[in-house]
């Protein structure tokens, strides 16, 4: 397979023509320069802008964005995209003048658009143009935007193509009125939850994942949602995404179903190639993160490879899917987390491991780092929970590269403790400190069998031999802090039965429950044995 030439990209006008005006519009385009890469720049970031970049400027509008527009132009950027409330207001005029003077294109982004969605779509266009240049083809097989336009012509509808994480990869342009679901999907926003719940209840997502059958969905006038067709994109047993077709101002064509089945197979070819081109980099970044967290790879090497300054504060966040089919959801959850993490920092690292997903968020602000991580994590969980329950655990903020492994360790402890609290979606050490500390103590006892009290092992062996429950009753009694009624209710036995069992446990072991230290170590060891 030919390798893409990184010196090639997509022209600004090609980007605008492909995306249409649903997300972005030209304000100043002095020349049709070639976009080689798409970068997100926060006002607090060090400017990592290079020649040929299209800069998505977040966190600054109007006059506040002027210095950043000029700085990007000095560093060789060919275009800057800024959110504009009203294209004709005074603030937009100031930005136009600054861009005109700097000789850089200025693109206005719709207020409701999500930056990570816009970045993904722009990158898709640039990547397709790059592959076209490397193969010498003017139109590459599998160009998703071109394919979406073709599907629209064949079906008579309005098309969007999504990945398994429900992120729009491409869409057709249309002069017909689009409904609210399509508009929100393109902007990267959540559709009406009542409608999405119905789709889940009807088993639509399951059908799309399980085969090539075209799914027909009726119009919902009450929700402002038009009739739709949908088909899953598959490579063998692997689900790669979905093609959605919204009804336009006319009926679907007679051969719409057949056209969709064929289009899904063509889309699969493109997505497989797209994955193979990026899989090496994805694997490298995932392996770098695993190596960093395990202590096998030097932090300086990781920082150099991904372009992050790990001497600045960072944090590890761990995500776990809960409930049924959690293993099946691991891939799409990893994709969703990667999109959100990259929107925060391009150098963010995400890797699945042992059924969990680890994310390293680097270059946090010196002040307010904890709040930044908490806000981003809540956004990710909010987006992910539409597809099923998800829990996240935030590790301690690592002040420098030498404390990243400790951040991971704390996050793992917090996640373990959070498993007992399904109502908590984003868990932190502050709210689960007691459970985390107790878990640490139990772990110490578990790892050092030489310091354990052999009398408790004798008690456990006695229970196993005689079918008694003395050890379990003693643990419940100690956990209840001597509250016989509470412990008995927890075990569903009479209080007198519990008193008898505790008395027998003391007789068999000789443990002195009047000694607070013996009570503590007994409780810890019994929890180790239970685990």
UniProtKB/TrEMBL annotation:
Pfam families: HTH_30. Gene3D superfamilies: PucR C-terminal helix-turn-helix domain (1.10.10.2840). Residues 471-527 form the PucR C-terminal helix-turn-helix domain. InterPro entries: CdaR-like_regulators, PucR_C-HTH_dom, PucR_C-HTH_sf. This is PucR family transcriptional regulator. It comes from Allokutzneria oryzae.
């Amino acid at each position: 397979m030919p390798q893409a030439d990184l010196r090639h990209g997509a022209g600004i006008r090609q980007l605008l023509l492909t995306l249409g005006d649903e997300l972005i519009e030209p304000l100043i385009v002095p020349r049709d320069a070639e976009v080689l890469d798409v970068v997100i720049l926060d006002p607090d970031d060090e400017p990592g802008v290079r020649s040929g970049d299209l800069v998505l400027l977040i966190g600054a509008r109007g006059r506040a964005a002027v210095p950043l527009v000029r700085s990007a132009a000095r560093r060789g950027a060919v275009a800057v995209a800024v959110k504009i409330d009203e294209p004709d207001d005074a603030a937009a005029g100031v930005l136009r003048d600054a861009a005109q003077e700097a000789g850089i294109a200025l693109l206005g982004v719709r207020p409701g658009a999500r930056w990570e969605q816009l970045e993904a779509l722009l990158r898709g266009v640039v990547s397709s143009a790059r592959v076209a240049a490397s193969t010498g083809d003017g139109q590459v097989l599998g160009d998703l935007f071109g394919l979406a336009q073709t599907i629209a012509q064949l079906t008579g509808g309005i098309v969007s193509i999504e990945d398994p994480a429900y992120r729009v990869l491409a869409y057709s342009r249309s002069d017909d009125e689009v409904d609210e679901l399509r508009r929100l999907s393109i902007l990267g926003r959540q559709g009406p939850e009542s409608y999405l719940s119905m789709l889940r209840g009807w088993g639509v997502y399951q059908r799309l994942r399980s085969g090539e059958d075209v799914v027909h969905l009726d119009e919902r006038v009450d929700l402002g949602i038009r009739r739709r067709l949908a088909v899953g994109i598959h490579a063998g047993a692997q689900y790669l995404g979905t093609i959605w077709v919204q009804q336009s101002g006319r009926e679907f064509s007679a051969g719409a179903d057949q056209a969709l089945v064929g289009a899904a197979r063509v889309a699969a070819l493109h997505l497989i190639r797209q994955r193979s081109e990026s899989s090496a980099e994805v694997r490298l970044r995932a392996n770098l993160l695993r190596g960093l967290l395990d202590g096998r790879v030097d932090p300086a090497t990781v920082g150099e490879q991904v372009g992050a300054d790990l001497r600045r504060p960072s944090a590890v966040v761990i995500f776990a899917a809960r409930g049924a089919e959690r293993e099946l959801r691991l891939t799409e959850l990893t994709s969703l987390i990667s999109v959100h993490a990259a929107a925060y920092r391009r150098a963010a690292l995400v890797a699945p491991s042992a059924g969990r997903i680890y994310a390293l968020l680097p270059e946090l602000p010196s002040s307010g780092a904890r709040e930044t991580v908490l806000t981003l994590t809540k956004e990710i969980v909010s987006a992910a929970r539409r597809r099923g329950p998800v829990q996240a655990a935030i590790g301690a903020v690592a002040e420098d590269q030498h404390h990243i492994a400790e951040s991971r360790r704390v996050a793992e402890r917090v996640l373990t403790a959070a498993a007992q609290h399904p109502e908590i979606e984003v868990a932190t050490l502050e709210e689960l400190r007691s459970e985390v500390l107790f878990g640490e103590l139990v772990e110490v006892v578990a790892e050092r069998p030489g310091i354990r009290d052999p009398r408790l092992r004798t008690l456990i062996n006695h229970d196993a031999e005689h079918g008694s429950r003395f050890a379990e009753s003693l643990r419940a009694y100690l956990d209840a802090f001597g509250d016989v009624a509470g412990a008995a209710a927890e075990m569903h036995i009479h209080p007198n039965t519990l008193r008898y069992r505790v008395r027998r446990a003391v007789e068999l072991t000789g443990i002195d429950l009047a000694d607070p230290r013996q009570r503590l170590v007994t409780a810890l060891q019994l929890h180790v044995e239970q685990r």
